[in-house]
Fold this sequence. Notes:
Blueprint: E1 7-9, E2 13-15, E3 18-22, E4 30-31, E5 35-42, H1 46-49, E6 67-74, E7 83-92, E8 101-102, H2 105-120, H3 123-137, E9 150-156, E10 161-164, H4 178-196, E11 202-211, E12 239-241, E13 247-251, H5 253-260, E14 262-264, E15 274-275, E16 281-282, E17 287-288, H6 298-302, H7 305-315, H8 325-336, E18 338-339
Antiparallel strand pairs: 1-8, 1-18, 2-7, 3-4, 3-7, 3-13, 5-6, 7-11, 9-10, 9-11, 12-13, 14-15, 16-17
Helix pairs in contact: 2-7, 3-4
Amino acid sequence: MELCNILKYDRSLYPGKAVFFYKTADDDFVPLEADINRIRGQKAGFTEAFTPKFTPKNLAPQDLAHCNPVVIEECYVPPNVEHIYCRFSLRVQANSLKPSGCSDTSVFNTLQELADVFKACGGYKELATRYCKNILLGTWLWRNQNTGDTNIEIKSSSGKVYQIDNTRQLSWDSVWPEDALLVLEQLSEEIHQALTNPAVFWCADITAQIATAFCQEIYPSQVFSEKAAQGEASKVFVKTKCVDGRHAVSFNSVKIGAALQSIDDWYLAESKRLRVHEYGADKELGIALRQPNSELNFYSLFIKADSFLDELKQQKNSTQIKISSQIYYVFSVLIKGGLFQKKTESRTQE
């Protein structure tokens, strides 16, 4: 199969903003707000004292002792508050079953048939389970996972309520207790149905209750902006305006989506999980692990759709279906959505 001039997929996962708040005896929703602090920043960077060639600069003894005034936003748990809550919504649609735009009929038919056979072989179940694990483990809390006991509650549009009492007792590869495993199986089945049935409208309301220490620091999303003007904060948090005019610190939807999509461990044996990306971007190392000159990147695998289709057809009626990691990876990218044509510059939807 060849890439055509127009080829796109709508994303299948639609997370909302995740909002931080706490509760009091009088109010079940008090927005967690940020503070603006003015601090004296230390001159401790490499370029403060050295040239790019590692030659010491000609400085007076006092030069590195001076401080730079810095304005930043910070966020801490208010005194006497024992739990912080973080809540977001998730909508799932069956948009990977076929392209949302395609200029070649034969390519469209191949991709639609590939999705149908992948669905018949149970492939979407594995992907749904992986997304579900990230929900239940609280991966979407990012740095805020490193705290006390965290309980997660999911209310789905099916009317069911699921709960994990303490995410710290679970890990991706560990053996889950029976009650947590049952939640994983039932919730992932709901997500599986939403990924595979266009007639299903499915959404969930997901809330984490985080046990905190006294005045513990909280880490919301940061706003990426140009260099701050004099007197303005150089570090600003993402916020959501509440009906009473207050602003609750938040995670943006892209950061939530990135956590849910951190399922790609198919590129190497015993590898860490990456956020799904066409070239396997590893943000920690600052490199791409699915290089264009390898057979591991999305586009090199995507054009093998015909051979993948034949491979799945041969297994469709088998009692022991084994789907290759390459096929799982391709469909994880299609669920993420994006533009995959070859003529115009590709811009992936978040």
